Amino acid sequence: MKDLLISILETIDEGIHAVDQRGITIYYNSKAALLDGLHPQDVIGKHILDVFPSLDRTSSTLLKVLKSRKPIYNQQQKYTNFKGKEVVTVNTTLPIFGQKGFLGAVEISKDITQVKQLSDKIHFLQQTLYRNSGKGENDKYKLYQFGDIIGNSNKILELIRKAQRISQSNSTVLVYGETGVGKELLVQAIHSSSHRQNGPFIAQNCGALPESLLESILFGTVKGSFTGAENKPGLFELAAGGTLFLDEINSLPLSLQGKILRVIEEKKIRRIGDTKEIFLDVRIMAAMNTDPLEEVEKGLLRKDLYYRLNVVTLYIPPLRDRIEDIEPLVLHFIDKFNKEFNNKITGVTREVLKVLQNYSWPGNVRELGNVIEAIFNFKDSGKIDIEDLPGHIVQQGNGDRNLSLREKLFQYEKELIIGAYLGNDKNITKTAEYLGIPRQTLQYKLKQFKLK
To answer: Is the pTM of this model over 0.85?
Structure first.
């Protein structure tokens, strides 16, 4: 049993470092050794401070837990390992208790170096692009305007009318709708039409990064707040005088949702590790792809945060509920891709338009754009005809009249999965989460549909 447990600990992707009550290492797996640039035999049987001379009893989380016998969760750490490589980890350190009482402590370290590097690049780009927005320096990075929202339906025209009206206020805005309907497009248009249009517009997908990293990105850090921390403003500060857009806000842990609630209510923040408060002039807009009340009922969205965000709520209906918008959207995408591909496609046949209007578009406008773009890769000119369309769209768009129940169920599953896949920009992880199925199941289905 012991050998099995050790084998399991050696295969997982987290570093495991366990010490006894004296601080002597009793277990140190291969991943931990890889992170630190050491070999397990260099560490096992030795005191932490003998192996890691840069640490002391106040900076070592393992020694802190040995002293307090209380856990430390999600502590971010940045350090240079013994091979000179810069490493960023998120550590959870726990006391170990057994039948004989307190036995020692164990630290679990998750390597987020690549994620941190990517987030730093995003942070830098946001700071570079938006610090001077409105000053004529970033014209090629122009944000969307209300004129960029395509559609003639009463639903979309009423949505634009409401959005234009609330663009003149500072109220928080909550936008929701299925994936691919254009939530960020609408939020950018509101910002571009507001008195904040010359201030920065900063967007952050809350589901894209781990909690500990996202907190430092949002709130900023001061030097010494954790090992390797630097003085760096967060996105709340970078968005000063403008708009901060928090997408997928319901994916945040409830504890971090509470901190964002306080920022909205008090209009001030503290960087991580700082005691000084910074007052903010930022408009907060948020979005999610599910009904916010359902998220509240599921316990995924704090009720108090929902009520604070729900000053203005805008719902973007799915494309299947506004089929009169399909034709202008198709013409828009044809014009767009003619310019990008240097093609000469003139439109679609009536039969194609009817099929497109009968299809359910689970990936919404994004899926429609992806379908049109795919056609441009194989067609140079003329009108888009029925044979140019993907088979699953033609089948469903024609009503599937002659299919058996099993065939219809298979076709519906295929259409739903492919639509979600295209609507999530062919991202396996996001599509699997959206559909609520394992990644392996999605990959099998895509292979079955000859998309992978």
So the answer is: no
Please report, as a single letter, which amino acid is at residue 15.
Answer: G
Phi and psi (nearest 5°) for 199?
-95, 175
Task: Express each pLDDT in 58-114 by its tens digit.
Answer: 888 899 999 999 999 888 887 777 877 878 888 899 999 988 899 999 999 988 877
What domains lie within the chain, and their CATH numbers? 2-111 (3.30.450.20), 114-317 (3.40.50.300), 320-448 (1.10.8.60)
Tokens (6 digits) for 300:
């995924």
pLDDT band of residue 129 (cuts 50, 70, 90) is low
Residue range 217-247, pLDDT digits in tens: 899 888 766 555 678 888 999 999 999 999 9
Q: Which stretches of 138-180 are DSSP H helices?
A: 154-166
Report which of 21, 24, 22 is spatially closest to residue 100, judged by C-alpha positions: 21
